[in-house]
């Protein structure tokens, strides 16, 4: 028990754990990365953050997070004993284990050499003679290559993070680089030209770091806590939440989608139609959002903990008056209501369909992050009111050199881009299907309409302008075999 750890310390001076309990605060320093800590749609999240939050709750104290620029700052702060725990995504490698107290956290990673697909695939370091390996500063990789004399160069980049390294390999600026395998897994879907070559060293467990100026009481309490989470399955559950699904953002196969249209959509089609009408939406757009969110599964739970057919967060559901997120009807009603609210925040000067694409991106990543991307777009001399321009800048919110210039910081900016693209495809397919299903009826226009049609249930109808616009014809083409 944690109380026992406190009792073991003599009374001459307070132990580190006693100091934490007396101050009622656990001080943690970290950096923004999808594998560690970031601000998600429902607030702060990330594997290490979730563990730290649970540990603080176990202690009954406040978790106070300081976000550092990079691992260099984290290690500096810990060396001066200005934080209780450092969440840096580092293993207990040589040079770390001797300077800090190290506590493994359950996630294993390995250094992996990656390359651009247009270059030769190396099989070992010997194949990189005359080449340059790129890596971030204060990483798990330097000690694996520092003592190698194989005729290759290596360059450390203190100003960029793993996502920035991968982006440069994707663009061809870097031919070869080294990243952690967990960071590659979390980001690989966004960089299709990046290929895995080979691993360096053996897998190592990532760890929390504690200052050596502390005694053992806090690290022992944390170790005891993590052992409990491992025993009751919580640690595996968190690992599955952040690593098991790895952001199912790729476009699902047309055949799979058509199968779900035949077997799942009929159960909810009337609900989509009713609530889309209530809130002034094209029901096929609402259905497309539902498919992207959950594949029309009312009991779905995402890797970030949102639930239900429309994947509403707890805060969103409470705000819009939804009591049971797992109830399909309530979820669809809530999704329609929330999307209309999000849509109304998008500046009215932005014409359709771009206004709806922006609303979808905001629905996914949050209005603040969308505005950050629009500001970056404008500062680059492009049009912040045009989706085709802004979607180029949203992914930059995942790179430190860019998100540090924004108001709302780190965001997984690739996700809303893929999110909008997928929904546009699903909408177009549903529009074509419904037109074919009613040959004797007047074909519905291929529009994204958010003009309220039921004044009794759609508040302030006069505030909604006409938002009809044809979808671009190139979206969501279905192979002729279907």
Q: Quick gist of this model?
A:
This protein is an alpha/beta fold. The chain has 3 domains: 144 residues, D-Maltodextrin-Binding Protein, domain 2; 97 residues, D-Maltodextrin-Binding Protein, domain 2 (3-Layer(aba) Sandwich), CATH 3.40.190; 210 residues, Lysozyme. The protein is built from 19 helices and 10 strands.
Q: What layout of secondary structure does this protein have?
A:
Layout: H1 2-7, H2 16-23, E1 25-30, E2 38-40, E3 43-45, H3 47-59, E4 62-67, H4 71-79, E5 85-91, E6 100-116, E7 132-136, H5 142-145, E8 153-157, H6 162-171, E9 176-180, H7 181-187, E10 194-211, H8 217-231, H9 234-244, H10 254-263, H11 265-278, H12 283-294, H13 314-320, H14 328-345, H15 354-365, H16 367-379, H17 387-393, H18 400-403, H19 414-437
Parallel strand pairs: 1-4, 1-5, 7-8, 7-9
Antiparallel strand pairs: 2-3, 5-10, 6-9, 6-10
Helix pairs in contact: 11-12, 11-14, 12-19, 14-15, 15-16, 15-19, 16-17
Structural description of this entry:
This protein has 3 domains: 2-106 and 206-244, Periplasmic binding protein-like II (D-Maltodextrin-Binding Protein, domain 2); 107-203, Periplasmic binding protein-like II (D-Maltodextrin-Binding Protein, domain 2, 3-Layer(aba) Sandwich); 254-463, Lysozyme (Orthogonal Bundle). Helices cover 42% and strands 16% of the residues. It is built from 19 helices and 10 strands. It has helices at residues 2-7, 16-23, 47-59, 71-79, 142-145, 162-171, 181-187, 217-231, 234-244, 254-263, 265-278, 283-294, 314-320, 328-345, 354-365, 367-379, 387-393, 400-403, 414-437; strands spanning 25-30, 38-40, 43-45, 62-67, 85-91, 100-116, 132-136, 153-157, 176-180, 194-211. α12 (283-294) crosses α19, α14 packs across α15 (354-365) and α16 (367-379) packs across α17 (387-393). The longest helix has 24 residues, at 414-437. Mean pLDDT is 82; it is low at 245-252 and 438-482.
